[in-house]
């Protein structure tokens, strides 16, 4: 009987020991697994930090690059707008306001120089318009006004090229006759002829100038609106008259 009791006690002790050992080993395994998991997670976090930092630096570099391109593009757009504005201002407020009869009598040197400068200015307006078309859509108000300005400048150029030479020749003939001839009648005829040709030149140019003036003022309004929106100083107001 005693032997059986002792055997039963030993059996329960053995079972208890096995259960405790199993739980102890299980906890050790969990702790070991937890430490390995923490180490793996830590490595993953550090790798993610490094990758994130690299991506941030790449993004900042790309952002700076894009900003530089955008800033340069914005400057080019503004420069193109102002170049066209300045070319049209020079043509309307200065060159086309000149009267052929007001040039000095210098054997036609001033007339020839003026003709060359105005011809180059017409070409510059067209080139400035083409440059604008690279930066702005055709349906924008700025481009619509620039297109009409260029159209009227073409009309003015056709009249200028076909009539200014006539005025120039008539004025040169007047100067030659006045200098070399003592025939008062011939001098009067030369003066009358040069006046007629100059008047024909001025009157034929007037419709083109009127059209340019109207669209120039509209272009100036659109230009100032664009400059204000982009944070730039507005273009100076220009009054053109003829």
Keywords:
242 residues; mainly alpha; Four Helix Bundle (Hemerythrin (Met), subunit A); 85% helix; rod-shaped
Number of strands: 0
Low confidence ranges: none
Q: Element order, helices and strands?
A: HHHH
Compute the number of helices. 4
What's the CATH architecture name of the domain at 77-229?
Up-down Bundle
* Structural classification: mainly alpha
Strand percentage, roughly? under 5%
**CATH fold name of the domain at 77-229, please?**
Four Helix Bundle (Hemerythrin (Met), subunit A)
User: Percent helix among the residues?
Assistant: over 70%
Span between termini: 139 Å
Gross morphology is rod-shaped
The largest pleated sheet is described as:
none
pLDDT averaged over residues: 76
Rg, Cα atoms, Å: 44 Å
> According to CATH, what is the class of the domain at 77-229?
Mainly Alpha
Oligomer: single chain
Written overview of the protein:
This protein has 242 residues and is mostly helical. The chain has a domain at 77-229: Four Helix Bundle (Hemerythrin (Met), subunit A). It is built from four helices and no strands. It has helices at 2-93, 109-135, 141-180, 184-229. Helix 1 runs antiparallel to helix 2. The longest helix is centred in the first third of the chain and has 92 residues, at 2-93. The model has no long low-confidence stretch (mean pLDDT 76).
């Amino acid at each position: 009987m005693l032997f059986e009791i002792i055997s039963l006690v030993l059996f329960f002790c053995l079972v208890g020991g096995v259960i405790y050992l199993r739980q102890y080993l299980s906890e050790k395994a969990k702790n070991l697994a937890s430490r390995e998991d923490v180490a793996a997670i830590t490595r993953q976090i550090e790798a993610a930090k490094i990758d994130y930092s690299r991506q941030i630096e790449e993004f900042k570099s790309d952002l700076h690059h894009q900003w530089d391109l955008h800033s340069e593009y914005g400057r080019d757009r503004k420069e193109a707008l102002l170049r066209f504005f300045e070319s049209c201002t020079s043509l309307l407020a200065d060159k086309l306001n000149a009267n052929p009869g007001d040039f000095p009598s210098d054997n036609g040197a001033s007339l020839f120089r003026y003709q060359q400068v105005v011809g180059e200015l017409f070409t510059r307006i067209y080139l400035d318009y083409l440059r604008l078309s690279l930066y702005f859509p055709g349906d924008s108000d700025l481009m619509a006004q620039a297109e009409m300005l260029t159209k009227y400048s073409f009309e003015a150029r056709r009249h200028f090229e076909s009539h200014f030479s006539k005025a120039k020749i008539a004025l040169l003939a007047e100067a030659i006759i006045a200098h070399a001839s003592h025939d008062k009648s011939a001098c009067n005829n030369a003066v009358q002829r040069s006046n007629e040709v100059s008047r024909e030149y001025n009157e034929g140019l007037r419709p083109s100038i009127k059209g340019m003036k109207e669209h120039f003022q509209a272009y100036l309004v659109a230009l100032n609106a664009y400059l204000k929106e982009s944070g730039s100083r507005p273009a100076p107001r220009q009054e053109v008259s003829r």
